[in-house]
Every structure is written in C-alpha cells, then in structure tokens.
C-alpha cells in the first residue's frame, strides 16, 4: 500500500519543496499550511505519518502531536522547526514524537528518518493484526468440518449470532453442542460480557434455583451472606442451558418468566431485578416429542426454539474424521509435549469405519489415548483401543450372500485387505499381521494374490 503522509508547514516554500520531494519518492501526500487545517484532516482522515512544523499560529506542532496521539495513535509524528532547542526536542520526544529535526535540514537525512518512521508504523500495525488474529482464534471455538451438514451449521451460526434471538441446538451427546453455543456468543454483540453454561441434569430443583437465581442472606439455613445467581452474573451476556430437556416442569415455569419478563427474584427476596440476557439451549432429546408427551412446556419450547441448529452425528459426516483426527492430534501434541506427525493409513481407515456412538467426544478421547501410547512419530493401529483394531477382522467375517466363510477364505480376504491398506508394502503388512515377511510371501503365492 502507498503510505499516506500529512505535511503541516506554514512556510510556503518549505511546504512545497518537501511535498515535491516526497511525491517523487512515491508517497501519497496531503499538504496544508496551518495547524488548524492539519487538525481538521487528522480528525477526518487516516495517515501513516504526520510531519509538522513546531511553531505555527493558533495551533502549533505540540498541539498537533497531542491530538494525533489521541486521534491516530498508530501514526508516527516528526517535528520540524527553525527554533530548535534541546529542551523543545526533549519535550516533543517525551510526548511521543518519533523524531525532532532542526532547520535547515538535509533532504537525505529527512528521507531516512521518514523511512524509519514508516517502518516502525508498519511493524506496529503488523503486530496489532497478529494480536487480533490470535485473540480471535483464542476466543472463537473451532467448529471443525467441511462436510455439507457442517458447512450448513457454520452458516447458521454466522446468521443467528448477529441477532439476539433464542437458539435451540439439537444433537446426540458428544456432537459439540456447547462448542456451537460458545461460537454464537463469541460472534455476537454480547461477546464482551459473560456466557454461563448450566447443565440442567446435574442439580436438584432447589439447588438449580439457588444456582440460577441466587439467594438473600438468611434465606435458608446456612445462607450466611447474599449470593448472586448465574442470571445476574451473566447480565448483558448469554445463558446456555445444556440438556434443557432434563429440566423439571416447575423450573420450566420460572425460566419462562425470566425470558418473558426479563427479571429475576433471588431466593428469599421480594424484590425483582432486571436482567438483559440471551438464551441458548441444547438437548439430545426429541424436544417436540417431549412436548407432545406433556414432559416439556410448549410455551417454553417455542420461546427457546426461535432458531434451531441440528448437529449431525459423527457417523453421518465421516468425511470430517481425518480433519478432526489431525486437529485433535495437534491439540494433544501440545498438551503432552509430543511431536507425532502422522496418522498411519490403516489407523485412519479404522477410524473412518468405526460407528462412533460417542461422536466427536469419543474421537478426541481415542486420539488422546493414542498420543499417550505412541512413542514414534506415527500413530499405528496398535495405539488404538482393542475394539477398533478388531474391526479389520470383523469386516471380513461374513461372506457375500450371508454364507459363513471358511478359515482359508477369511484369511485370504484379510491378507488382501491389509495389503491394499498398506499399498502393498509387504514389510508393513507383515508387521501388522505379526508374521514374518517370508511367511507373508508364501501366503501371497498360495492365494495367488499377486
């Protein structure tokens, strides 16, 4: 990008000379002959560098410096003056000027100082950009997956996050419902305030009321002081109800009132408190069915289900398994101080063919176990739990048309499968089958696999 420099100089000849030189050097230049004009520009436009005369009528260089620090903190300021003194230079530098140049000055010297000032500004902006990226990455939960169903989930997250509507997240346990809730909050206008997560299946009704609404001092035996509840703590932020389908009916009434009236009452109090909250709920249950069965209030269901996000089971988006596996590999490497670089092809095939009843959470746990167990730079099948490694044999247990295969037929199919999975690397195939290479060669010849 072409750097934009503002020159403020009330001496016309000096102004024109400096403007002419810097234009030839390829900079974009805006030049004005008074501090007043310069200040108006600083208020309305962005500059990379401001070069200002020190002594001017009405608004002088020190005032320009002061306002630029406030209005454009990343713009560097160079002070030029014919009234140079050591004291003035010290004051200007203390106030944040990049450099202080006395007239008459050498053009080559000014050019060099300008280059250095712009380089400093460029590095500052680059560091600021990197910090923003890191902050954004730290704050935004990663929703991993490029399957059509997950791309739709990401699209819906982006759409609902910009609003303040309630969202209901549906999906099996372990699919990442809380992760989606945190992504919505992190992308919303409430992101600077708290998001509190509350598991509706973990508390009795009395404890649930105490945790959510708080209590007054002496509201019950043992209440030694007033306690704020999660609703107050999350004021202007987001409340996430995990497993909302497990909430008792009597508590559902109280939650509905909070959503409708935007106010709460602590346990033991007669005074209401206003709260500004966004609500996100999640459940693995069929909440519409729960409503039909009378187990969940219809009015609360419609209040929470203004928009819904359905998270697919991992078994329904198996194309995302390699991406998720390597994501968790990198994460567990960092946690355990390891440097495993690769997941073996056969290992990945075993992961891809597994049913994943525990969904993404189970995959993370299995990768964590594998990283802990593996001492090489590659995760091999031996690092996986037994129920996954047995899959290779189970896959070939039944012959076509339901006929039970002979041991010889099953062995042939299994050896062929392992060879295909290893891209016909006989050494690796022999290691997996725990036989020597000569024995494998004999079996290949006997079964006429080549």
TrEMBL record:
This is Sigma-54-dependent Fis family transcriptional regulator. GO terms for biological process: phosphorelay signal transduction system; regulation of DNA-templated transcription. Residues 143-372 form the Sigma-54 factor interaction domain. Keywords: Activator, ATP-binding, DNA-binding, Nucleotide-binding, Phosphoprotein, Transcription, Transcription regulation. Gene3D superfamilies: 1.10.8.60, 3.40.50.2300, Homeodomain-like, P-loop containing nucleotide triphosphate hydrolases. GO terms for molecular function: ATP binding; sequence-specific DNA binding. InterPro entries: AAA+_ATPase, AAA_lid_NorR, CheY-like_superfamily, Homeodomain-like_sf, HTH_Fis, P-loop_NTPase, Sig_transdc_resp-reg_receiver, Sigma_54_int. Coiled coil: none annotated. The modification 4-aspartylphosphate is found at residue 53. Residues 4-118 form the Response regulatory domain. It comes from the Bacteria. CDD domains: AAA.
């Amino acid at each position: 990008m072409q750097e934009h420099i503002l020159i403020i100089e009330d001496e016309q000849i000096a102004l024109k000379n400096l403007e002419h030189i810097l234009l030839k050097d390829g900079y974009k230049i805006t030049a004005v002959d008074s501090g007043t004009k310069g200040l108006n520009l600083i208020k309305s436009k962005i500059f990379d560098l401001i070069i200002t005369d020190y002594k001017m009528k009405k608004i002088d260089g020190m005032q320009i410096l002061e306002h630029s620090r406030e209005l454009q903190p990343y713009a560097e300021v160079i002070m030029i003056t014919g009234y140079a003194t050591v004291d003035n230079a010290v004051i200007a530098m203390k106030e944040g000027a990049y450099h202080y140049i006395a007239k008459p000055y050498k053009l080559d010297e000014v050019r060099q100082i300008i280059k250095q000032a712009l380089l400093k500004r460029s590095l500052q902006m680059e560091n600021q950009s990197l910090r923003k990226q890191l902050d954004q990455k730290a704050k935004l939960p990663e929703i991993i997956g490029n399957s059509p169903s997950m791309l739709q989930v990401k699209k819906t997250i982006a759409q609902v996050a910009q609003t303040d509507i309630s969202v209901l997240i549906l999906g099996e346990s372990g699919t990442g419902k809380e992760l989606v809730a945190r992504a919505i909050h992190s992308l919303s206008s409430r992101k600077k305030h708290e998001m509190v997560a509350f598991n509706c299946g973990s508390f009795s009704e009395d404890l649930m009321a105490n945790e959510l609404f708080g209590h007054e001092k002496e509201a019950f035996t043992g209440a030694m002081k007033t306690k704020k509840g999660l609703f107050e703590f999350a004021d202007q932020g987001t409340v996430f109800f995990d497993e909302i389908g497990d909430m008792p009916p009597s508590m559902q009434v109280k939650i509905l009132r909070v959503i409708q009236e935007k106010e709460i009452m602590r346990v033991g109090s007669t005074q209401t408190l206003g709260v500004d909250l966004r609500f996100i709920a999640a459940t693995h249950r069929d909440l519409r069915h729960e409503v039909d069965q009378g187990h969940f209030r219809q009015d609360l269901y419609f209040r929470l289900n203004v928009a819904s996000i359905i998270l697919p089971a991992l078994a329904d988006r198996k194309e995302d398994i390699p991406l998720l596996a390597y994501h968790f590999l990198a994460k567990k490497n960092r946690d355990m101080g390891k440097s495993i670089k690769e997941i073996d092809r056969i290992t990945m095939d075993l992961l891809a063919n597994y049913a994943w009843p525990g969904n993404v959470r189970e995959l993370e746990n299995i990768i964590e176990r594998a990283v802990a167990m593996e001492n090489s730079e590659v995760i091999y099948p031996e690092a996986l739990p037994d129920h996954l490694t047995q899959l290779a044999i189970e896959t070939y247990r039944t012959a076509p048309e339901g006929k039970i295969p002979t041991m010889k037929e099953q062995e042939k199919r299994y050896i062929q499968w392992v060879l295909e999975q290893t891209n016909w690397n006989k050494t690796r195939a022999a290691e997996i089958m725990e036989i020597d290479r000569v024995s494998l060669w004999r079996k290949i010849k006997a079964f006429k696999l080549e």
